[in-house]
Amino acid sequence: MAAAAAARLLRLAPRRLQVPKASPLAALSFPLPRAAPLAAASGRRQRFCTAAQASTPASTAAAETTGAAGEAVGEFRKRLRVSDVKGGEDEGVAWVGKELAVRGWVRTCRAQRTVTFVEVNDGSCLSNMQCVLTPETEGYEQIDSVTTGASVLVEGVVASSQGGKQKVELKVSKITVIGKSDPTSFPIQKKRASREFLRTVAHLRPRTNTFGAVARVRNALSYATHKFFQDNGFVWVSSPIITASDCEGAGEQFYVTTLLSNSVEGGSLVKDIPATKDGRVDWSQDFFCKPAFLTVSGQLNGETYASALSDIYTFGPTFRAENSNTSRHLAEFWMIEPELAFADLNDDMACATAYLQYVVKYILENCKEDMDFFNTWVEKGIIDRLNDVVQKNFVHLSYTDAVELLLGSKKKFEFPVKWGLDLQSEHERYITEVVFGGRPVIIRDYPKEIKAFYMRENDDGKTVAAMDLLVPRVGELIGGSQREERLDYLEARLDEQNLNKESYWWYLDLRRYGSVPHAGFGLGFERLVQFATGIDNIRDAIPFPRVPGSAEF
């Protein structure tokens, strides 16, 4: 049976690897079914894709033992990108005279009498590689297919550019069109398109300057997030997406159910949904035998691991069924939620401050080209604003002091200011932008009636040890608290908010068995991306926004 299976694989393998001779990919060094020399295989990664390397003595011996014939997997190599060439301080001058192959998508093509300029972008950076072709260039007969949106492979020698927009360009010796693009229907042209329109073509908008830059900065913020917490001894924990509890107690959750069958044409009928005698949905017949939801937060689960591993963080998708169409809300978003054991609110504020300063500094140092783009085209002055976050000391004041400060300002706000009411974005921005001149501000010790059940009650019996970190232009960016570690206080808070204690039995157990003071905070990742890029609408800070009435792509 083993021999038959091996023979079957041999018959299938060539079919997976063969490329029709007529295909443009046939010229791009796809691996052949037979083994290739190691040097040639390594070079092919630099051309187009991974190739199989020659069989090693060990693999040959194994094949002889089993009677099977196979090929060793080729070595994976990091591919050279445009950013590697043009991303240095000399903007590519050191590469002059060297051979280079660029794979990417055509941004523009300008044909003149004796020369054609093609701008190719591979997504690694904002800059395009200007490629210079002549009628003598191999593959030039394909020039009519070199249109905006087409994918190409261009090979040639780096040369000093005669133009003023770039220091180097590629003198092309060979061009291969990999994928054509119909110029009459491709929705993204050289002229500027509105962001509202680009949301309707979210599958193509990463090819624009703005959304390519947003994606790279988002990636850098994600990397910096993991690096900050890992370097500080935190353990990353995967919190569940499906939950039976409501962390925020607001009831704005998406149900997860299998009671609605997809097997019936047109969907399930209401009459087919199991119900109890009093007409309610019979959740006992559902998949989890109880109501289940998409999570609004990984915090409660994170606390369980902080109660064993000391310092942890979660970083994953969360969901909220809030029917809001504002520029600040998404139905699906990512949250960063660290939890610190043996910590109080002061430790929590210190961690939040250090984290924000770290990630902002990281993108300023590692995403300079993209940040310059945002500073020029999206929000003038954003680099100065972010430098203020890195360089200035954060300050904190109590909620009570903040309310008195707002009342004393004599400024007319759209929303009322009164002790016991939550602060609105306009209040938060006034405090951080006007009162403290662009300095990040932390408001602490909020009235317990406007905060979640898990926040630790202060000695005054009226406030809880909660904090919100405010930044210019956004308002609240981070919200956190010291958690209630006292069992009797926590049970009382659940009763006050009419939450079922049985649903939180495991959360209460943490207070029964080795409870410790602990604290944590939550940061909406898309709001961080907004803050770091200057993008106005949060729907443009995530690749595929999910909002009321829209779940496209």
TrEMBL record:
The keyword Transcription regulation does not apply. This is asparagine--tRNA ligase. It is an enzyme of class 6 (ligase). Its EC number is 6.1.1.22. The keyword Transport does not apply. Belongs to the class-II aminoacyl-tRNA synthetase family. It comes from Paspalum notatum var. saurae. Residues 216-543 form the Aminoacyl-transfer RNA synthetases class-II family profile domain. It catalyses: tRNA(Asn) + L-asparagine + ATP = L-asparaginyl-tRNA(Asn) + AMP + diphosphate + H(+). HAMAP family: Asn_tRNA_synth (MF_00534). Transmembrane segments: none annotated. Pfam families: tRNA-synt_2, tRNA_anti-codon. One of its GO terms (biological process) is asparaginyl-tRNA aminoacylation. Keywords: Aminoacyl-tRNA synthetase, ATP-binding, Ligase, Nucleotide-binding, Protein biosynthesis. One of its GO terms (cellular component) is mitochondrion. InterPro entries: Aa-tRNA-synt_II, aa-tRNA-synth_II, aa-tRNA-synth_II/BPL/LPL, Asn-tRNA-ligase, Asp/Asn-tRNA-synth_IIb, NA-bd_OB-fold, NA-bd_OB_tRNA. One of its GO terms (molecular function) is ATP binding.
